[in-house]
Amino acid sequence: MHAPSPDAPILFFDSGLGGLTVLGPTRALLPTAPIVYAADYAGLPYGKKSDEELAARVPALLGRLVERYQPRLAVIACNTASTIALPHVRAALDLPIVGTVPAIKPAAEMTTSGVIGVLGTEATVRQPYVDDLSARFAAGKTVLRHGSPGLVTAAEAKLHGLPVDLGAVRDAIAGLRDQPGGDAIDVIVLACTHFPLLRDELQALAGPGVALIDGAAGIARRIASLTQGQRWPAEARPGTAAFTHSNASPPPSRSALAPYGIGHIETI
Ligand code: DGL
C-alpha cells in the first residue's frame, strides 16, 4: 500500500457518541490528524441488536464510509460492533482496522480481591469473545458481567445537554454488586465506549475503593503505532462528524462536539 496523503483522515466509528472517548486520547497523541467521526444513529443502540444484524450492518456501513471519506485507517470505537463484527469488517475492507475490546487483561492485573466487574451492552456481555478474554487473561479470577442499555441512553443524554438519569447509573452498579460475590469487586471494566462519558457518575456510585478502567488509551497508542512514519497536516483543522439519519435521535450541538476537535456536522 502506498503512503497515505497527509489529508487522509482517521475514521472513528460507533453507534453513537461513545467513540468520542477513544477519539479524545487519540487527538492527544496525534493533534493534527484529520478526523472523521461517524455515528450510526439510525442503528442506535447496537446493544439491543442481534449478532446477525450487526455482523451484516457494520461492514456494509463502514464500506460506504470508507468509500466516501477515503480514510488511512478506521477505528471501530465500539465494543459491541468490535466483539461481533471485527472479522467481517477486516475481511471486507482493505485498510487497517483497529477494534475496541473489553479491557479484561489490565483489570485482571490490577485487581487485589480477584473479582472483576464487566459493564457493557447486553450484546457485548453475552459474547463468546468475552469468555475467551476471561479465560486467557483472568484465569483464577471471578469475572462478573452486566449489560446496561440505560447507561447508553444516559451518556447520549449527557452530551445532548440533558440531565443524566442517575437511576440508570445506580441500576448498572447494582447489576454487578448484587450478583453472588459482587461485593468484592474492586475493578470495573467499562466495556462500552459510551460509559467513560459517565465516569464521574459511575465513580460516585461505585465508591472510591473501585477502579474504573477502559481501553481508550491503549487504542490511541495502537493507532499512533500503526500510523508511525506517515505524514500529517502541519496544523489541526476542524474534523467532521457524520450521523446516519434518525428521526428519533438528532445530532448533538456543535458546541458539544467542539472539545473533540469537530467543527462540521453532516447527516448521511
Ligand atoms: N458504544 C457502544 C459500545 O461500545 C454501543 C452502544 C450501543 O449502541 O448500544 O458497545
UniProtKB/TrEMBL annotation:
GO biological process: cell wall organization; peptidoglycan biosynthetic process; regulation of cell shape
Chain intervals for the UniProt region annotation (Disordered): 241-268
SUPFAM superfamilies named among the record's database cross-references: Aspartate/glutamate racemase (SSF53681)
UniProt keyword list: Cell shape, Cell wall biogenesis/degradation, Isomerase, Peptidoglycan synthesis
Enzyme Commission number(s) of this protein: 5.1.1.3
Pathway it works in: Cell wall biogenesis; peptidoglycan biosynthesis
Gene3D superfamilies named among the record's database cross-references: 3.40.50.1860
An annotated Gene Ontology molecular function: glutamate racemase activity
UniProt keyword annotation of Transcription regulation present: no
Enzyme class: isomerase
Reaction equations catalysed: L-glutamate = D-glutamate
Active-site residues from the entry: 78, 192
InterPro entries with a match to the protein in the record: Asp/Glu/hydantoin_racemase (IPR015942), Asp/Glu_race (IPR001920), Asp/Glu_racemase_AS_1 (IPR018187), Asp/Glu_racemase_AS_2 (IPR033134), Glu_race (IPR004391)
Coiled coil (residue ranges): none
UniProt binding sites for substrate: 14-15, 46-47, 79-80, 193-194
Record-stated family: Belongs to the aspartate/glutamate racemases family.
Function per UniProt: Provides the (R)-glutamate required for cell wall biosynthesis.
UniProt name for this protein: Glutamate racemase
Organism: Sphingopyxis flava
